[in-house]
């Protein structure tokens, strides 16, 4: 019984972290297109999966994220929202923009649970 209570507390703590990370990413966004996008089945769902590194500070502070680059090509465009640059790799290997990666509990491409997010810089 004590183990179950400990797991519930840990899950609640991870959920608070995930909610804070979602808020952080959404506050940085452009108020945008992913919020009403129907292509993300995991939008708004809470599956309790951890979000390792979703809002962590970058190791190379001098590097620029992809979204800050000019001359965005179709190959760099997020295939979920079609409005931002792809800059976050999910644990399964698929890549989306930071906002879509946080809004989706499951990968929008292969539907596996998102367990890790890794910000990508050039």
From TrEMBL:
**Record domain RING-type: where:** 78-111
Q: Is the Metal-binding keyword given for this protein? A: yes
Pfam families in the cross-refs:
zf-C3HC4_3
Q: In the record, what terms sit under GO molecular function?
A: zinc ion binding
What keywords is this UniProt entry annotated with? Metal-binding, Zinc, Zinc-finger
At the top level, the lineage of the source is Eukaryota
Which InterPro entries does the protein's record reference? Znf_RING, Znf_RING/FYVE/PHD
Name of protein: RING-type domain-containing protein
